[in-house]
Design brief:
Length: about 350
């Protein structure tokens, strides 16, 4: 059985305060197939209901109409790092309690699996719906749980959408001079073939703000503001993975909904309007060539550079789920109008 390499670092749990017969024993499974791993990072999230936030309609990517239901977790205590294994299937570790650090007896362990420096898997003890569940870590008790590890590929392009089986780390920096610090991780587990309706949430873990306190190990008090744009995801940020997007941001004619109002401004060509001229408004012809039917037709077709607004037909996660169950999808409504 593996044991967390440094309990003092991991949970803030003290090895000397606990005996070998207490704590939570986690046994790793990788049902999709073997996942090679050289390092496992365990982070213990706060299991209190008030520390977990569900946010619907988080946009998947800047140019995307799709959005996801997202569940936020907050780190409660440092987990730790186990190194030196060759794979995750069958691996076991024990998390010991340390009442000198935390009196909590429930945590949600979130597991990040690395092969070298590359994040290759994520894992959790899953509830009946496939979402991360809590484990009991109580002095004087042994508890046992399976950890289901699924493969992920780490996205390096900030604009890339988080699809199933992908993950992204989000860094923040308060100023140009400050080194970016790891604000959190976002990932979307693959679908479980045995429970196609399960694992319905994209998952996000908020880590402690070490720009404020370098020794912080508890993110329980952080707002659900993963991208540190000062706009919490629940009510002011349709894209909490990218700091350029939030309610009130300046909108550009770039095709992206920067200010989260579901409207995008798209550069596109527009045709000149021709109105029937009256005798009073009809201009005198400048030349004979401009008055020919062919010249008037060419003038009408000449495109103008314009910015048109299109209301984005946002597809909620709920409607996406009902669609996947066979319901008729809502008819998209897209309106166009010329910019003034
Ligand atoms: Ca935000
Ligand atoms: Ca944002
Ligand atoms: Ca907009």
């Amino acid at each position: 059985m593996g044991r967390l390499s440094s309990l003092a670092v991991i949970l803030g749990l003290s090895a000397c305060s606990s005996g070998p017969d207490e704590g939570a024993i986690l046994t790793f499974e990788s049902p999709e197939g073997p996942i090679s791993a050289t390092r496992i990072e365990v982070i213990l999230a706060n299991a209190a209901p008030t520390a977990i936030a569900d946010v619907d309609n988080q946009r998947r990517a800047p140019g995307s109409d799709a959005d996801d239901a997202v569940r936020y977790y907050r780190q409660r205590a440092l987990g730790g790092v186990v190194e030196g294994m060759k794979g995750v299937a069958g691996f076991q570790l024990r998390i010991e309690p340390d009442i000198t650090t935390s009196t909590d007896e429930e945590f949600i362990p979130l597991v990040f699996v690395y092969d070298g420096d590359a994040l290759v898997g994520v894992g959790a003890v899953e509830d009946a719906l496939g979402d991360p569940a809590a484990v009991q870590i109580t002095p004087g008790m042994i508890t046992r749980y399976p950890v289901v590890v699924t493969g992920v590929s780490l996205l390096t392009d900030p604009a890339a959408p988080i699809e199933r089986g992908t993950a992204r780390t989000v860094s923040c920096s308060s100023s140009r001079d400050q080194e970016p610090w790891r604000s959190g991780v976002a990932w979307f587990p693959v679908v479980d073939p045995a429970r196609p309706e399960g694992r319905a949430h994209q998952l996000r873990l908020l880590l402690p703000d070490v720009s404020v306190d370098p020794a912080a190990t508890d993110a329980s008090a952080r707002e659900a503001d993963l991208d540190c744009d000062q706009h919490p995801a629940a009510n002011n940020d349709c894209d909490d993975l990218r700091s350029a997007y939030y309610n009130g941001a300046a909108e550009s004619c770039d095709g992206f909904d920067t200010n989260c109002d579901s409207q995008r401004f798209i550069p596109q060509g527009a045709r000149r309007r021709t109105r029937p001229a009256t005798s009073a408004t009809r201009p005198r012809p400048a030349s004979r060539s401009a008055t020919t039917p062919r010249a008037r037709s060419r003038l009408a077709r000449r495109p103008l550079h314009a910015c048109a607004a299109a209301r984005v037909a946002r597809r909620t996660a709920r409607s996406a789920r009902s669609t996947s169950r066979g319901a008729r999808p809502p008819k998209p409504r897209v309106r166009h109008r010329s910019a003034r």
